[in-house]
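Wed. Picked up where I left off yesterday with F-box domain-containing protein. The coffee machine is broken again, so keeping this brief.
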Amino acid sequence: MSVIQWLQLPQEVLLHILTFLSPMEKANVRATCTYLRTLVDRPSLWKSSTIVFKSIGIYNARFWDTLQNRKICSVEVRKVTLKQLKKMASSLPDITNVRMDACLKGEILQGLQPLLNLKQLHLTECSNVTDHDLFTEILFFQHLTHLSLCRVTFSSVLPLTSIVLLQNLYSLSLHSKEGIVPERALQYILFRLPKLRELSLATGNMNKWKLSLCFNMPDNFVSAFEEQPCIPRLQLHKLELMNCRCASLSTNAFNQLSTLKSVCLRHFKCLQHEDFIETILLKLPQLTELKLEWAAPFEPLMCPIPLKLESLSLVGTLISNSTLVWFSKSAGELKSLNLNFSHGYDEEFVKKIPSLFPHLQNLYLSKSRLTEEALVVLANLYSLRVLDISNNLHLSPNAILAFRKMTSNRIGLILDRPMESVKYCC
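Structure written out below (C-alpha cells, as returned):
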C-alpha cells in the first residue's frame, strides 16, 4: 500500500494503528505531515502515557501547548524547583497522577495546588522535609485516591494521623527512612479509611506484636484532628511488607486481613519464615496472588494445601524443584508464574512446567539457564500468551525463530529486560 492509500484509510482505523506505536514512533509519524500531526495529538492516544520531566526549565510555550492539547494526565518529575512546578501545574491542568523522584525541600508541594483533581501522588524522597510540613501540604489534595511516601521520617504520632482526612484513599504506601511506622498512628488511620484497599509498609524491625497491633481494632485513641468514624473491619485487598523481619501475626490480625487477595513479602529476610508463609496461605482463604521477591529461601514444612492462587511470583529468590512441585500440587489452576532472576531449580523442572502448571498464561524466566530443548517443551503450554526469556545467553536467534513458527506467534516473547528494571526500592 502506498503512502497516499494509507492516508485514505478511515480515521478510526488510523487511530487504532497508532495506539500500537511507542512514544518515539508516534513522534516520527507526527513529523511527517499536518494531518498525521493532528491525529497523533488526539488525547485518546495519550491517556495512558506518562511524561517524564528530567528538567522542566528547558521547555517552551509551544511544548506546553502540545501537551495540554493531548490532555496529559500522568507525569514523572526528576528535578524541579517550586517555580517550575507551578509552571507545570498551570500548563497541564488535567494532571491527575504525579510521581516526584526529586528530593522534596521546604514547601515545594505548594506548586501542585493548581491541580484540583489530583488523585495519585507518589513521593520517593521525603528525607529532607519534616512529617509535619509534609502532611500539612498533602491535606490540600482532598481527592487523593493513591498516596505513596518513601524515606519519610515520623517524628511523632499526630502528623501521620492527619491522613484520616483523606477519606477517598484507596491505596497507601508508607516507607519510612528508618523502616518503622508508628504502630498506634497506623492502627488509628487504617480503621478510619473506609475505602482503603491497598497497603504497602516498610516494617523494618517491627516485631510480631507491633505489626499485629496495626491490624487490630483500636481503643479510644484521641487525635488532634476531627474524629472520623471507626470501621469495624478492614477491607484490604492487597498487602505489601518490605524489609520485613516479623515471623508471624496474631490471630486477631489475620482475622482483620481475611479479605486479602494479594500478599507481597519483599526483601523478607527472616530465617524462620516458612511457618509465616504457610500460615498466610492457610489463614487467608481469598488469596489469589502471592509474591516472595528477593526473599530468604522458602521450603514448605507441610503437605500440599488447597489454594486459590492464580499468580505466583518468586523473583530473585532461591527456590528448589521440590518447592515448585509443592506449589503445583497446591495451586493447580495457576495462570501466572514469575521466576525472574530466581535460582535453585534446574532445566528438568522447566521441562515439567507444562504438566505441572498446564493453565499458565504468563511465564517469566528472565536469566534462567533455558536451553533450546526446554524452550521447545514450553510450546506445549497451549494457554500461554506471554513468555519472558530475556537475559538468557543459551538461546540462539534461530531457536527463538523456530519457537515462534512452532507456536504460530500466539505467544508474546519478552527478549529484552534491563537488569535495573528488577531492582526494587522505595
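Quick read: Residues 105 and 128 are 6 Å apart (CA to CA).
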